[in-house]
Amino acid sequence: MLRTGWLLIGGVTVLWAGAAAAEVGMRALAFTDPADGGTARAVVWYPTDAPETPVRRGPFTFQVAEGAPVAEGRHALVILSHGSGGSAFGHADTAMALARRGYVVAAVHHRGNAFDDDRDAGTERMWRKRPAQLSAALDHVLADPDLAGRVDGDRIGALGFSAGGYTVLVAAGGVAELGRIADHCRTPPAGERFCHLGNEETQARVATRDPRIRAAVLTAPVGVPFSKDGLAGVTIPIRLYRAERDEQIAATQVEGVRDRLPTPPEYEVVRDAGHFSFLMPVPAAIAAEVGPPAQDPPGFDRAAFHERLNTEIADFFDRALAIGRQGR
User: N or C: which end of the chain has fewer CB within 10 A?
Assistant: First the structure.
């Protein structure tokens, strides 16, 4: 599986700010993991009228209004799933950009497959638990007394990176055949690192559709568990990204998702990007310590790419969830 546990390592402070159309609030939530009743976590970003202040999380400082009330109105929701071994903060810049556009964004911290608890990596448990955790987090957000009245339950999207892309596809109606992973990894494409940490032999199937999800963005998704029949139930609008120089997920995995979906997705190959280019930019001061998740192919500008990516993702959800923007 893919390790993205760099986000809470080191001691460097990074100030995340931007030209704001709205202030951004942030709060942490705890919810019950449906797998074993343990405590799982999520981080929520949202528009607010409260002033932003610097808030430290690990080595990072976010310019947010921590714990502030959500701005008036009913806001579309995006539920976010990080990659294997990653963190709820892995896509914080994208979450904050969406919040500035009026979205509530809930990022699941996948218990058992995160940087601080990766005991399930490569096992059937990992693939089975992730979609259930996503839906449980969504349940919690929609029932939370401080959020429920501010979320439009008819306008819910999902965003997934790598193993998070797999997670979102299952939630969107896909049926994963886990035996396809081991079959694929017996003769993986040259240069693909997806299989390097091993995958448990299993013939299990995972089908945990969440009908509340109406649109999805997938970035470098794990696609090999899905056959054409397995994706037949994914009928929501999809925007799909592939990194041209992805060293973790072979092009065939992403192209397989593209070609097997019953309705062609919006599809983009990001020229010169690597697998981890979809993670938020890493400051140069800690890039060497972070290792591969901080690295991009030579000449690729991750910060410039994210300015475009974050706008494209927000524009897609506006279209797919039928959100009007005056003056645009």
Answer: C
Dist CA 159 CA 161 (whole Å): 7
Cβ-based neighbours of 157, under 8 Å, separated by 6 or more: 76, 77, 78, 79, 213, 214, 215, 216, 217, 317, 320, 321
Query: Over 80: is that where the pLDDT of 76 sits?
Result: yes
Closest CA to 85 of 199, 31, 163, 194: 163
- Determine the Cα–Cα distance for residues 91 and 280; give it in Å rounded to an integer: 5
- Write the burial class of residue 79 (CB in 10 Å: 0-12 exposed, 13-18 middle, 19+ buried): buried
Nearest to 207 by CA among 188, 226, 185: 226
The amino acid occupying position 103 is Y
Distance from first CA to last CA of the chain, Å, rounded? 41
Tokens in use for 242?
A: 């592939």
Q: What is the total residue count of the chain?
A: 328
User: Phi and psi of 298, rounded to 5°?
Assistant: -50, 130
How far are the Cα atoms of 49, 129, 215, 320 from residue 100, in angstroms, in the given order? 11, 31, 19, 18
What contacts 40, CB < 8 A, 6 or more positions away? 30, 31, 32, 33, 108, 109, 110, 111, 133, 136, 137
Does residue 325 register a pLDDT over 80?
Answer: no
Angle at 273 between CA 185 and CA 98, to 5 degrees: 105
Cβ–Cβ < 8 Å for 9, 26: no
pLDDT tens digits, residue range 158-197?
Answer: 999 999 999 999 999 999 999 999 999 999 998 899 997 6
Instruction: Dump strand ranges (E) for the chain.
Output: 15-16, 23-32, 39-48, 53-57, 60-66, 75-81, 104-109, 151-161, 176-177, 205-206, 215-219, 238-243, 266-270
Residue pair 44/67 in contact by the 8 Å Cβ criterion: no
Residue 323 pLDDT level (bands cut at 50, 70, 90):
confident
Distance CA 240, CA 312 (A): 11
